[in-house]
Write a sequence for this structure.
């Protein structure tokens, strides 16, 4: 009996205990970014039952979360994270089990406002010696970049004032910055947004797992099949500034159970736009990729892609032209041909890339990858060429009113020696009524054809040439990551590059003629009596006794290889101790390059293969070479001396995490880099001559950063200080004083860049689902040295100016020593700010931002900053001349307002359809200069014969109100 | 109101259609349409479209010139056949036209178009109609020219200026059909003497002529400006160097490009040339501005004041004109050649220069400082023939 009573009591106790037990059900999973499946840390997860909040949690560093203690039932799980669209899923908890949701993917809130190469108009700067390549900021992990990358792209913002060459861009672990110029290579995958979406970026001198990087960030685009977002996607996009229509489709299987992943992406960008006449796209893109997991340790990836197509280019003009036609987007490149618009400057490219990547993970503590990547194909850019005919460019300075009535700042200046009111009025009428005179204010194609048609035997005087820069670029990259202990991670790699780029031009269109002749018309002007010197291809002439008659597709003018070999090894070690971590890294490298002339130019014949002077085999006449300043023979044919550079660099990073959501970190780096091929050869189209005193460029860079992430607040503040030494560049332009195409080699350019960056996004706390967001980039980018300049001309080996100082490069300094103006690194606003509101709820997003840009400066030419140009013909320097000649133009500040709206709908949790509409420059501000350059020419035909004057500068402007509408679907 | 709205909407649609067509043209067609063909103008066309009434002779036009530039206000038209070519580079920025029914007939005049490579569109033999209204008739060294009004600049020394702009040319100079070019008019010594004696009014000036029996005169004339960027008019003798009166100065080419100018200087052949002009002579080019000039004038040369003139000439070298003297009996004929001519550095045949073989020369004859001067139109291989 007692036993029964005890059992009953025990049963009762158990029952009571059972009733008192907590629910055992729950939900778990991993929050990932749809973009690249990267884990999303600190996402806020809220479990709702009806209107009642049941539980909350945050995702861990690896994106995982667990919300325990849920009773059986149906819940709504809301996932929120800064920079992402809010997401909701239904969760059913049954039988007290923890429901595993596996991957919950979040879509970046500005997913369709991505910035890529297409975000920037292609400006035609050929032959000017200037470059105008903006840096592209990727913002998936950084609040500053995510806002600035999109909002500042319209003014061609360069982060921290750095040139685009300093931004390392990797594909599958291979650095793909152009081997010759260093420019970032985004155009190689324009239109393949899905295939190249998965990427990782670091800022400034931060270290990356994928490469050593420089001081301007590193972006690694994964580019493999398994990294592409799974499923079928399609989009239709129209915009008003570049092309009318973009069609894009992609499909990726994701990694399948059989270890295979396949992916494809195709697109077409077609049509013109509302702002720039003559600019059009006919560009396509394809991408095919496959991954195969061989076993737990090994994976092979293969990809092949290309972007064949053509696009019409925009040209820059002087403000005089823009004002006369009343349109800052005037484009002088196009004209009518039998009533149809035709652009003279068309970029035609198809540069396929193929790579094979091997990922190996022999243990938990070691992983590595090796990539072989090959780039090949063609890169052409058409232009008009002419022989013994009038300059066909409509905005040639002699066609403008200012050539007939000389003013400076609107005031007539007699000394300019230009005063013919009748001609001025005529020119004024032509440009003011540009539509009535479209044959004069645009390229007159019909006239060019008719000139050709009238020539005896059909010899074309005008042709359309295609300047080709065809690369064969083989890259090998090996990277590894090892974790020998919990507290240390090692990254390292080896890179090798073999690049052979052939520069040449072909006849693209004979414009109604039968043939063109391969002679150097500049040489013919100076050396017409010498049949040798006028030859572009002397070897051909010596055999055939006449210059080559050219048909469409024939090479002519110049032909040479730029040979580049580059090797580097790098190693970094990351050491972690509690909240503190430090990284040290080093890199060593060796760069060598040389020119290999394939055409013997008559002006610079060099020597015969046996080292003696060349002799005409028919006449026995000696063909006398020209000589360099050091007495060596100047030659256009064969291999030049090789430029060789040993390079090295070091970086250090300190990082301290405070309380789990605050981080303070600092980076410091020193870089000793080789100059680029295009900074070394004086006139590669004509000869092997190199800049004297070649040296590496040196950079010291440092930054300190504070970052906070939590409670819906995301902030990053950075201060940076960077100094660069011994930079060099070569610019080319027609010099009226020499009556010849000139090359200006500038060396010893030092710069200092310092400033602060702030990016933030935070809830307004007043209006639900509305965040306040903003960025500020406040910098000072200045020149700190007096560089030297050497001037040569294409028509002779003569050195016009040798190592003359450019004393007004850093500042406009008057005779009493006072500084009238400090000069700045150009082509980007040194003050850039954005402030806006972002609404994000239930798959809607609305962003409205106001931007302010100031302290942007025009690119300077060194010639105007020499004593030679300032002093003028009388060799006397006055303050007035100094101010006039050396002052750097500062662009007016600009306010812009942008608005973005988007919405997506999930259908049966399987399909997604959505749109985004971005309207930029709502204030329709058409006065915003985004770039330009000073022409490297001097007006010397003055009345007083005392001084020189400047040629007008050329500018690019931003379009007025413009839109981009994207409609997409995903399965 | 509704009508207007519809009209505006229709217009907008039309404009956008045109623009859409424009932007899609290169996308779909790839090939360019055949360019429109040039159609020569006719007098009937000009009467209908440009107000042509009657065509005056070039002689009638020339007769209007009264020793000062004349802005033509009347509806005067002339026509002529192009007789010059700038292909060889010896004639520059202008075309010569001649009217009449044959080469012996009519008059010639210079049209100052102010463009290069004119031979591409104004070939010898092409008829050209010139609407003279609002153009200016002027003279330069006795030769009549038709161009735009004078440039109103302090340094201007010409009665007319180049038309320069295509819009002006298009409004005044109309290209007719292509005809057989005129043959050169043969000049004898007597007819040449008579023309020189008659001065600018003679009908021969500006025509293409052929003169037989010319022999090399062993004399050249050249004027160089040591620093061509500085003032160098007659009031600035410190920046002028003449080669004259002393034979040929070692010059064996028709003229000198920049390269051969430097080569001649470096050869020492011009070392005895004097700086200065007229009665003002400073000394040979081996001296320096600092040696020859007062401090103020020397300072104009800046740092170059301490260079020899020869050094300055090399520093600022450029292509230059050279005139070679030929003899036709007792009459001098200068053959003047630009340093920018493609044949500038061509050696004068030693048979002409040394053996003094008689030659026949073809070119445009002009009056220059009361003497006859020929500008070769074509390369000497065609225009200078040893008899």
């Amino acid at each position: 009996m007692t036993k029964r009573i005890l059992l009953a009591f025990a049963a009762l106790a158990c029952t009571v205990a059972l009733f008192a037990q907590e629910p055992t059900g729950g939900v778990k999973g991993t929050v990932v970014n749809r973009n690249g499946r990267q884990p999303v840390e600190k996402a806020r997860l809220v479990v709702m039952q009806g209107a009642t909040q049941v539980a909350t949690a945050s995702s861990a560093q690896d994106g995982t979360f667990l919300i325990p203690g849920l009773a059986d039932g149906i819940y709504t799980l809301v996932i929120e994270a800064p920079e992402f669209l809010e997401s909701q899923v239904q969760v059913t908890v049954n039988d007290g089990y923890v429901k595993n949701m596996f991957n919950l993917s979040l879509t970046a809130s500005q997913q369709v406002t991505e910035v890529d190469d297409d975000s920037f108009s292609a400006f035609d700067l050929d032959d000017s010696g200037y470059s105008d390549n903006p840096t592209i900021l990727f913002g998936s992990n950084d609040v500053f970049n995510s806002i600035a990358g999109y909002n500042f792209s319209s003014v061609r913002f360069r982060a921290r004032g750095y040139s685009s060459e300093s931004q390392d861009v990797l594909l599958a672990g291979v650095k793909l910055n152009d081997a010759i110029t260093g420019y970032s290579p985004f155009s190689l995958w324009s239109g393949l947004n899905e295939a190249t979406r998965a990427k990782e970026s670091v800022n400034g001198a931060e270290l990356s797992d994928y490469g050593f990087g420089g001081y301007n960030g590193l972006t690694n685009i994964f580019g493999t099949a398994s990294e592409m977002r799974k499923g079928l996607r399609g989009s239709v996009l129209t915009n008003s500034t570049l092309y009318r229509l973009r069609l894009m489709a992609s499909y990726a299987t994701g990694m399948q159970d059989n270890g295979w992943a396949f992916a494809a992406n195709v697109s077409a960008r077609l049509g013109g736009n509302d702002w720039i006449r003559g600019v059009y796209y006919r560009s396509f893109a394809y991408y095919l990729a496959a991954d195969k997991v061989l076993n737990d340790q090994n994976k092979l990836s293969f990809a092949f892609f290309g972007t064949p197509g053509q696009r019409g280019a925009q040209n820059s003009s002087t403000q005089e032209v823009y004002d006369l036609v009343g349109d800052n987007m005037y484009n002088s490149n196009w004209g009518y041909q039998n009533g149809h618009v035709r652009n003279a400057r068309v970029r035609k490219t198809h540069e396929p890339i193929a790579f094979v990547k091997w990922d190996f993970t022999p243990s938990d503590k070691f992983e590595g990858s090796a990539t072989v990547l090959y780039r090949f194909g063609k890169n052409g850019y058409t232009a008009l060429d002419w022989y013994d005919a009038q300059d066909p460019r409509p905005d040639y300075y002699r066609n403008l009113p200012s050539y007939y009535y000389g003013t400076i700042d609107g005031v007539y200046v007699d000394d300019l020696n230009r005063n013919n009111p009748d001609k001025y009025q005529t020119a004024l009428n032509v440009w003011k009524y540009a539509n009535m005179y479209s044959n004069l204010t645009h390229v007159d194609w019909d006239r060019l054809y008719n000139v050709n048609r009238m020539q005896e035997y059909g010899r074309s005087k005008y042709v359309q040439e295609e300047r080709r820069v065809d690369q064969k670029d083989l890259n090998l990259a090996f990277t590894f990551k090892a974790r020998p202990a919990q507290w240390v991670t090692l990254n390292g790699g080896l890179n090798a590059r073999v690049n052979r780029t052939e520069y040449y031009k072909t006849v693209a269109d004979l414009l109604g003629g039968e043939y063109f002749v391969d002679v150097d018309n500049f040489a013919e002007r100076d050396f017409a009596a010498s049949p040798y010197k006028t030859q572009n291809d002397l070897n051909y002439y010596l055999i055939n006794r006449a210059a080559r008659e050219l048909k469409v597709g024939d090479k002519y003018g110049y032909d040479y290889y730029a040979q580049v070999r580059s090797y580097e090894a790098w190693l970094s070690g990351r050491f972690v101790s509690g909240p503190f971590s430090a990284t040290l890294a080093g890199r060593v490298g060796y760069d060598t390059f040389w020119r290999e002339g394939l055409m013997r130019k008559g002006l610079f014949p060099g020597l015969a293969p046996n080292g003696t002077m060349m002799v005409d085999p028919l006449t026995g006449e000696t063909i006398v070479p020209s000589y360099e300043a050091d007495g060596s023979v100047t030659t256009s044919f064969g291999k030049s001396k090789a430029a060789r550079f040993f390079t090295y660099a070091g970086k250090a990073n300190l990082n301290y995490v405070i309380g789990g959501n605050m981080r303070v970190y600092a980076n410091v780096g020193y870089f000793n880099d080789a100059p680029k091929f295009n900074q070394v050869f004086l006139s590669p189209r004509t000869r092997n001559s190199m800049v004297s005193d070649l040296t590496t460029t040196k950079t010291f860079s440092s930054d300190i950063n504070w970052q906070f992430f939590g409670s819906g607040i995301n902030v990053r503040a950075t201060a940076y200080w960077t100094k660069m030494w011994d930079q060099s560049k070569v610019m080319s332009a027609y010099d009226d004083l020499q009556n010849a195409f000139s090359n200006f080699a500038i060396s010893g350019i030092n710069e200092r860049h310092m400033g602060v960056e702030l990016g933030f996004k935070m809830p307004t706390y007043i209006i639900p689902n509305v965040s306040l967001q903003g960025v500020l980039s406040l910098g000072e980018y200045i020149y700190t040295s007096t560089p030297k300049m050497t001037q040569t001309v294409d028509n002779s080996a003569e050195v016009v100016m040798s190592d003359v100082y450019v004393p007004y490069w850093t500042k406009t300094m008057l005779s009493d020593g006072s500084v009238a103006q400090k000069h700045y690194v150009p082509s980007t606003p040194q003050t850039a700010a954005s402030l806006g509101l972002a609404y994000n709820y239930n798959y809607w997003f609305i962003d409205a931002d106001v931007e302010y840009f100031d302290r942007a400066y025009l690119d300077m030419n060194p010639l105007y900053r020499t004593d030679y140009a300032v002093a003028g013909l009388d060799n006397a320097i006055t303050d007035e001349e100094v101010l006039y000649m050396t002052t750097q133009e500062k662009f007016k500040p600009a306010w812009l307002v942008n608005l973005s709206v988007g919405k997506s709908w999930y259908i049966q949790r399987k399909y997604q359809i959505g749109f985004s509409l971005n309207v930029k420059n709502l204030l329709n501000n058409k006065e915003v200069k985004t770039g330009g350059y000073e022409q490297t020419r001097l007006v010397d035909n003055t009345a007083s014969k005392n001084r020189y004057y400047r040629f007008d500068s050329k500018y690019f402007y931003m379009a007025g109100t413009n839109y981009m509408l994207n409609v997409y679907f995903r399965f | 109101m509704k009508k207007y709205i519809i009209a505006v909407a229709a217009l907008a649609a039309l404009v956008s259609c045109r623009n859409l067509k424009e932007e899609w043209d290169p996308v779909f067609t790839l090939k360019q349409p055949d360019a429109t063909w040039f159609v020569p103008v006719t007098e009937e066309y000009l009467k209908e479209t440009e107000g042509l009434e009657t065509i005056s002779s070039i002689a009638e036009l020339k007769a209007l010139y009264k020793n000062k530039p004349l802005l033509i206000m009347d509806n005067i038209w002339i026509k002529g056949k192009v007789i010059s070519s700038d292909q060889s580079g010896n004639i520059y920025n202008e075309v010569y036209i001649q009217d009449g029914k044959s080469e012996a007939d009519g008059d010639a005049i210079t049209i100052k178009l102010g463009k290069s490579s004119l031979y591409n569109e104004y070939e010898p033999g092409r008829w050209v109609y010139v609407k003279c209204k609002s153009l200016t008739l002027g003279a330069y060294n006795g030769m009549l020219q038709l161009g735009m009004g004078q440039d109103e600049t302090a340094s201007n020394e010409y009665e007319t200026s180049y038309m320069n702009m295509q819009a002006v040319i298009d409004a005044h100079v109309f290209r007719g059909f292509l005809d057989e070019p005129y043959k050169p008019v043969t000049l004898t010594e007597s007819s040449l003497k008579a023309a020189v004696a008659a001065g600018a009014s003679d009908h021969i000036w500006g025509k293409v002529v052929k003169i037989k029996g010319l022999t090399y005169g062993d004399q050249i004339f050249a004027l160089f400006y040591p620093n061509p960027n500085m003032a160098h008019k007659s009031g600035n003798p410190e920046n002028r160097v003449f080669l004259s009166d002393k034979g040929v100065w070692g010059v064996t080419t028709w003229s000198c490009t920049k390269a051969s100018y430097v080569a001649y200087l470096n050869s020492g052949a011009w070392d005895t040339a004097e700086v200065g002009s007229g009665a003002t002579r400073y000394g040979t080019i081996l001296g320096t501005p600092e040696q020859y000039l007062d401090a103020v004038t020397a300072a104009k040369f800046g740092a170059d004041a301490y260079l020899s003139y020869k050094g300055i000439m090399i520093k600022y070298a450029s292509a230059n004109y050279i005139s070679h003297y030929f003899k036709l009996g007792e009459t001098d004929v200068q053959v003047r050649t630009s340093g920018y001519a493609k044949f500038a550095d061509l050696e004068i045949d030693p048979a002409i220069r040394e053996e003094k073989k008689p030659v026949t020369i073809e070119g445009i004859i002009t009056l220059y400082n009361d003497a006859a001067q020929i500008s070769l139109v074509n390369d000497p291989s065609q225009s200078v023939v040893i008899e």
Observations:
- Residues 11-16 of chain B have pLDDT under 50 and may be disordered.
